[in-house]
């Protein structure tokens, strides 16, 4: 709006959701980079805080972030802040009048909301806090249903629910600009999705992956372990054309046993295309193919703007690839409900270290420069170190975020960006540099995962036996 043009020294406040905390900073940075803007966090930045102050942005920049983020709840133009209400008042009275005045006119309507983090206030207490801000020269009329401008008082009571202070640790006041896209988590929930599988990706994480990959309209996005297409649904929401492959014939064709409770077989229209149709993005569906990720089927050259995937870990979905009769000693029989052609290729174990090596190598050859690879890396936590993250000379590591699965396992969301085209010397570098060698410990993730469960079960039994021995004390 024209009234924004002459306003100066603006700072913005983002109120973040307190789930998926590790993923928030890479998401906001990725969305800012789509507009060519750096992440300028201001003074005293705390990554785990539910409130971030950002500098050097326009209101259009902030709106572009909020139009996509699922990690942020709301954004505000910050007018004042302080550790106490007295400091807040001093800060607000110093805020430039020319920045405030366009929103305080007599012909405008407004309301003030009170948001608290980690504490619930009674309605009467909220009203008292609003009344205490009478020193601000609001000249318009209060309209609670449909105000022209919304202002917010935000109080931070820390992040420890077991130690909530009587008074807030920090207070902010500002003009509301926009809400984030948290509603997408509900509207795209896999509970309501037409076609799902045992490992369908959570809607919130799918959108986070799409944002980390900087997926945008008219991009071509590929998932080499597509499954039931949850990641394609998220990417198509942002206007990208989507395609994928998977070795599982039944999943790609939407046939065989169902994953839903109280449903034995999949219906006639349970497939990935139907999922995109459900959300109005079928026109962005390119296709999906039955294919082995370890075997090249694509022509040489760059093809994709982003590659986003969740490889199988061997827990609920097997890690397998096609082989030959010579390798049949280690072959795997097709599933009982396989309904494909009579000829079934020999199926072999596909080690996790080989999956990640092939994935990075494929991305180095088929991503555009600046294109991103986003994938999940399963980790046995007691042994984890950063050297376990696979590397490639053509890909720069952008972010590495952890989602804890249990006391001993987690998976890390790895984001990499292509910085150069492959060269013949890269192959030699990969052989000579130990940093590029596949970490073989990934191959034992399944055994370590289940050994951890066994240990917990045994520990539980030992505790039970101990309590029985000690008379239940």
UniProtKB/TrEMBL annotation:
It catalyses: guanosine(10) in tRNA + S-adenosyl-L-methionine = N(2)-methylguanosine(10) in tRNA + S-adenosyl-L-homocysteine + H(+). The keyword Transcription does not apply. The keyword S-adenosyl-L-methionine applies. Part of the heterodimeric TRMT11-TRM112 methyltransferase complex; this complex forms an active tRNA methyltransferase, where TRMT112 acts as an activator of the catalytic subunit TRMT11. GO terms for biological process: methylation; tRNA processing. Belongs to the class I-like SAM-binding methyltransferase superfamily. TRM11 methyltransferase family. Its EC number is 2.1.1.214. InterPro entries: DNA_methylase_N6_adenine_CS (IPR002052), RlmKL-like_Mtase (IPR000241), SAM-dependent_MTases_sf (IPR029063), TRMT11 (IPR016691), TRMT11_N (IPR059073). Residues 192-322 form the Ribosomal RNA large subunit methyltransferase K/L-like methyltransferase domain. Residues 11-182 form the tRNA (guanine(10)-N(2))-methyltransferase TRMT11 N-terminal domain. GO terms for molecular function: tRNA (guanine(10)-N2)-methyltransferase activity; tRNA binding. It comes from Oncorhynchus tshawytscha. The gene is TRMT11. Keywords: Cytoplasm, Methyltransferase, RNA-binding, S-adenosyl-L-methionine, Transferase, tRNA processing, tRNA-binding. This is tRNA (guanine(10)-N(2))-methyltransferase TRMT11. Residues 321-333 have a biased composition (Polar residues). Gene3D superfamilies: Vaccinia Virus protein VP39 (3.40.50.150). Catalytic subunit of the TRMT11-TRM112 methyltransferase complex, that specifically mediates the S-adenosyl-L-methionine-dependent N(2)-methylation of guanosine nucleotide at position 10 (m2G10) in tRNAs. This is one of the major tRNA (guanine-N(2))-methyltransferases. Its main location: cytoplasm. GO terms for cellular component: cytoplasm; tRNA methyltransferase complex.
């Amino acid at each position: 709006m024209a009234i924004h043009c002459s306003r100066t020294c603006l700072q913005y406040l983002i109120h973040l959701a307190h789930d998926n905390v590790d993923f928030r900073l890479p998401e906001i940075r990725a969305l800012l980079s789509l507009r060519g803007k750096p992440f300028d966090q201001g003074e005293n930045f705390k990554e785990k805080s539910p409130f971030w102050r950002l500098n050097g942005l326009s209101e259009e920049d902030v709106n572009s972030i909020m139009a996509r983020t699922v990690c942020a709840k709301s954004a505000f133009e910050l007018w004042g802040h302080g550790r106490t209400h007295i400091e807040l008042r001093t800060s607000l009275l110093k805020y430039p009048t020319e920045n405030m005045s366009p929103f305080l006119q007599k012909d405008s309507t407004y309301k003030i909301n009170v948001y608290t983090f980690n504490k619930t206030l009674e309605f009467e207490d909220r009203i008292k806090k609003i009344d205490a801000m009478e020193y601000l020269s609001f000249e318009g009329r209060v309209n609670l249903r449909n105000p022209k401008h919304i202002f917010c008082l935000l109080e931070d009571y820390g992040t420890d629910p077991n130690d909530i202070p009587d008074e807030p640790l920090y207070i902010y006041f500002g003009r509301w600009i926009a809400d984030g896209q948290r509603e997408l988590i509900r509207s795209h929930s896999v509970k309501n999705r037409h076609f799902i599988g045992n490992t369908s990706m959570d809607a919130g994480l799918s959108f986070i992956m799409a944002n980390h990959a900087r997926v945008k309209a008219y991009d071509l996005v590929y998932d080499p372990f597509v499954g039931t297409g949850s990641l394609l649904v998220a990417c198509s929401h942002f206007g990208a054309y989507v395609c994928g492959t998977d070795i599982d014939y039944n999943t790609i064709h939407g046939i065989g046993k169902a994953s839903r409770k109280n449903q034995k077989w999949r219906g006639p229209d349970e497939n990935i295309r139907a999922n995109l149709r459900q959300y109005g993005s079928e026109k962005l569906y390119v296709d999906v193919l039955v294919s082995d990720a370890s075997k090249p089927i694509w022509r040489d050259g760059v093809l994709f703007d982003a590659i986003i995937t969740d490889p199988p870990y061997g827990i609920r979905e097997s890690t397998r690839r096609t082989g030959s009769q010579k390798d049949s000693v280690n072959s795997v029989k097709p599933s009982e409900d396989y309904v494909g052609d009579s000829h079934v290729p020999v199926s072999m174990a596909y080690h996790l270290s080989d999956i990640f090596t092939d994935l990075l190598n494929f991305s180095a050859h088929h991503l555009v420069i600046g294109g991103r690879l986003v994938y999940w890396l399963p980790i046995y936590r007691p042994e984890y170190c950063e050297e376990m993250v696979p590397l490639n000379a053509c890909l720069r590591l952008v972010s590495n975020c952890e989602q804890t699965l249990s006391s001993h396992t987690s998976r890390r969301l790895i984001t990499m960006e292509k910085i150069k085209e492959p060269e013949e010397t890269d192959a030699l570098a990969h052989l000579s540099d130990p940093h590029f060698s596949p970490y073989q410990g990934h191959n034992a993730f399944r055994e370590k995962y289940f050994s951890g469960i066994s240990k917990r079960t045994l520990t539980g039994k030992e505790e039970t036996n101990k309590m029985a021995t000690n008379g239940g004390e």
